[in-house]
């Protein structure tokens, strides 16, 4: 199976791509090109913000708003220690299954066991999680976020009577796509977040490549809608999950 699949999942600072070009992996199918759309960097917490956890009333909730927000806890040792001391009394939630898996991995390292994590079924997002949390008694909640994260979940929970603290644990630095001009066609691009849409289109244009020639893959209707709004006529394949395996399976069906 010929062609190239571009994966835009962000990477943490220090995990750089090869200076010789994209990281290519030969597979029984299209060549995989890992080209993170964003570099993630740990954001120092202000003293008052880091200590705000101690003021959470019981029952208190901690919500991961993305896989990266859970992973960012590892770069916040003071906060991670405080969470570890009270891990057994905290209720945990995540916006979707992939985020819950990332949070579970951190919790195992903190307390040596996996606690229940509330997350919406199906394709999760902030709105779906808001519905799930709306069935719970209002409480104090801390949201694990990136700098500049949208306030939809925070505003929704506040409107339901929750006391919301927002912890910006990391920030996203946009990165252009690696040079794709010499890769083998057809070209598939996997979008796992709405923040990747504009940068991917602009990077392709900067390389002289037609974004309308790309076969776009995504898992979320909102991402697909945004792509169609910015690139009318785009060819989009919907996936059950925004992962490499689901993308390869979809490509195989199209071949």
Report the structural category. Answer: alpha/beta
Helix tally equals 9
Q: Give Rg in angstroms.
A: 19 Å
Q: For the residues shown, what is the average pLDDT? A: 86
Distance between the termini: 7 Å
Q: So what's the CATH class of the largest domain?
A: Alpha Beta
Architecture per CATH nomenclature, i.e. the level-2 architecture of the largest domain: 3-Layer(aba) Sandwich
- For the report, how would you describe the main beta sheet? 7 strands, mixed
Strand content: 15-25%
Number of domains: 2
What fraction, in percent, of the residue positions are helical? Answer: 25-40%
Structure description:
- With 255 residues, the chain is α/β, with parallel strands linked by helices.
- It is built from nine helices and 13 strands.
- The strands form two sheets. A seven-stranded mixed sheet has the order 2-5-10-9-6-7-8.
- 35% of the residues are buried.
- It is elongated, with a radius of gyration of 19 Å.
- About 5% of the residues have low confidence.
Give the helices and strands, then pairings:
Blueprint: E1 4-7, E2 11-12, E3 23-25, E4 31-34, E5 38-42, H1 47-51, E6 60-64, H2 67-71, H3 77-85, E7 90-94, H4 97-111, E8 117-118, H5 126-133, E9 140-146, H6 152-159, E10 163-174, E11 187-191, H7 197-206, E12 215-218, H8 221-230, E13 235-238, H9 244-254
Parallel strand pairs: 1-4, 1-11, 2-5, 6-7, 6-9, 7-8, 9-10, 11-12, 12-13
Antiparallel strand pairs: 3-4, 5-10
Helix pairs in contact: 5-6
